[in-house]
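Hey,

Quick one before I head out. I ran the complex with biotin overnight. Inputs first:
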Amino acid sequence: VLHADDLVSRLREKPVIGREIKVFKETTSTNDVVGRLARDGVPEGAVVFSESQTKGRGRLGRCWVSAPGKGLWFSVLLRPDMLPSEVTRLTIMVGAALVAGIQRETHLPVDIKWPNDICFEGRKIAGILTELNAELDHVNYVVLGIGINVNMVASDFPPELKHSATSLFLETGHFVPRADLATTILREIDVRYRQLNSNDFDQVADEWQHHCSTIGKEISVRMGDQMIQGRAESLDSDGALLLRGEHGQLERIIGGDVTLRASG
Ligand code: BTN
């Protein structure tokens, strides 16, 4: 079981991320709870965990299955001084932090599928849902929702996810202590958020690209009704994906669903 006091006491002195931590037994979605804290004026760095979620959500309006007590379902409040168009950098930062934290605690060589999936051998272990409240030229706050399948066994996944999702337990064969993983990941996010704030996004982006399984591949990206195909070349300075289209043109992709194409 996760305890807020225990998690706070494990973090090093004065982190931004995790300066305040709450743990709920059940909630609709930790992103909802953090959104309310944000509107109440709580400072950035607050983190909310829940042992279970009744309305956990993923990107593109999908549901997120949150097995009680077996994963890490949490959200982080940030108030970054950046433009709405730069917020993808935060998803990139969390992706890099998740890979570092998971590798540190489990030694599992996980990778990143752009923009927000942490996978092992093509199956999803964790996801990030970035929600923002912004004016046209100013971000009020960002809620970074993070879901990690930690100790789930095969029967914890609904049949439709059996082939696409997995857990750290299933892949390592070991039970993973959630409090250790949670604090390691919060520390990894804290380090990278400091880097971002000292204008060092490039270093975070390099680390991310190093672990990204999408870069260099032939992919299809579905954005609503539109489908774009090409080769994923790199990230730009805002964290968008640069895709070399079939006619040589460079497309800038800020969201969507990526599938790998068989390349000849
Ligand atoms: C995705 O891969 O589509 C993103 C999944 C994000 C899930 C987490 S679990 C904690 C937080 N609360 C939610 O409702 N969603 C995020």
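The helical segments are 4-10, 30-39, 88-106, 168-172, 178-197, 201-211.

Talk tomorrow,
K.
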